[in-house]
Each structure stands twice: as C-alpha cells, then as structure tokens.
Amino acid sequence: MFDYKLLAALAAVVEQNGFERAAQLLGLSQSAVSQRIKLLEARVGQPVLVRAVPPRPTEVGRRLLNHVQQVRLLERDVQGQVPGLAEGGGAERLRISINADSLATWWADAVASFCAEHRLLLEHVVEDQDVGLKRMRVGEVAACVCATERPVAGARSVALGAMRYRAVASPAFIARHFPEGAGATELARAPAIVFGPDDSLQHRYLAGLGVEGSFNYHLCPSSEGFLRLTSSGLGWGMVPELQVRELLDDGRVRELVPGRPVDVPMYWHHWHNGGPLLGELTRQLCRVAERVLVPRTD
Asked: Which Gene3D superfamilies has this protein been placed in (predicted)?
C-alpha cells in the first residue's frame, strides 16, 4: 500500500529542486523530509532519488512521481464531486511544461477563463518546445505543450496545430548586413539570435536555404526579450507570427525571405488517468488552438 506522505515528500524534493525548499513547502524540517525519502526507499527496496544538485528521480522514482501526478488530479475531481472532502485544504496546482513562445502568445487566452471557472492554479515550467516532454517523462509535470508527437508511457498526445515562425530583422539591421538582399550566405554570416542551446529553429531555417554548419548568434532565453532584441537591430531571428504580426504591419521589422516560414507542430500531452479536469482542459485547448494556430503541414 502506498504511503502518500512519503510520495508527497518525493514529489516536493523533485519539484522544488532540493530538500530545503521541499521542507519549507511541506512545513517540515529538512531532516524529516530526508527521513521520509529514506523510508520510501526502504519500502520499495531501491533508491528513488539521485543525490545530485538538483536531486533527480531514479527510474522507480519517475514511476512514483507519475503516479503522484495522476492521483492529485483524481483527488481534485473527487473533491469537486464531494465538496466536504475539500474543507480546510488548499487548491491543488497543476504543473505544466510549456515552451516560452506559446506562453508569450496564445496560451493565456486559452486558459484564463478555464482556470477562473474551475478554480485551478497553474504552475508553468518553461522549456524549449523540442525538449519539454522530458519534464513529464521524469514525473515533474502532469501535462506538457511541446513539439514532440510521441507520448510517454501512460500518457496521451493530442495535435493542436502548428506555430508559424518568420525570419525577421529590423530595417537598420537589414540595411547594414543585407544591402543586396538576404541570401543564404549572407544570413549565415550575419549575427542571429537564438533562444537557447536547444533552439534549432535558425538551424532548420538555414538548412532549408541550403546552408549547413555553424553560424554566429546571440543567446536570449526570453521570448519577449528575443523580440525586443530583434526589433532593436541586434540580430535576425525566428519569431512567432502571432507575436510579430503588429511589428511587421507597421514596418518595425521585415521578413528576410518572404514566403519562407517555418511551421513547428505543437502537441498537448497529458496522463490517461488524469480525470475529467484534464479532459475538459484538453477540449478547451483544442478549441482555442484551432482558431489561433495554423494547420499542420505534415
């Protein structure tokens, strides 16, 4: 039989990236949290954490975390059906891994009214769209928005559509670096802006123009900062059409090679046993995504 106090300690250590913050969250001492982890490991007969900075779940730890996420959602649904069970308890947070560009564009309109209606609290874990699913795989989140179609074991993947990206730069940057036009060779030589080490959009764009290999780039791990730096002339970059449309319309940025967007498919992943709440949220996201994202081309 599961001891959910022990499982809650495991979840807190992983989600809070350490024993100290986990202890604060649970209202316990660090020693008490450590003892609960040791007791859990004694009961399952193997380690549930890799003692690193931050601590990481082992394979069995990931399975237990996935179970905790699903139990939390099911408990919340039962509390909604039997209100007396929720007396004295706080709202449960739904932890979601999401890419920064979705968070900066369509996501807020998709979830704001839903969260208000269902009294739902969200905790967003920001990851690049190409690697966001790893958070779900290790049991840190209950759902994920990312570019990966194949779900993890025990989860479901739903296609939302695609985010369309355009290669843009400021007029001053274009005049300085591309006076004769933004050809493939010129683009590879001019400084680009890349979101982070896992961001491959610029690489994909250049490969589509026949350019392989390395290129010069700035790093900016902020969606809003990325757009600001691009429009200020620091470099050229791949920006979501949803985010840059107004700047394109008023001429503050220009598309480098018109008619050459990059579409990134977006998928919503959630646990099969997530209960009615996740099912309703999934339907809400699909309705909004159908309106604001572009159809997938694959």
From this structure: 3.40.190.290, Winged helix-like DNA-binding domain superfamily/Winged helix DNA-binding domain
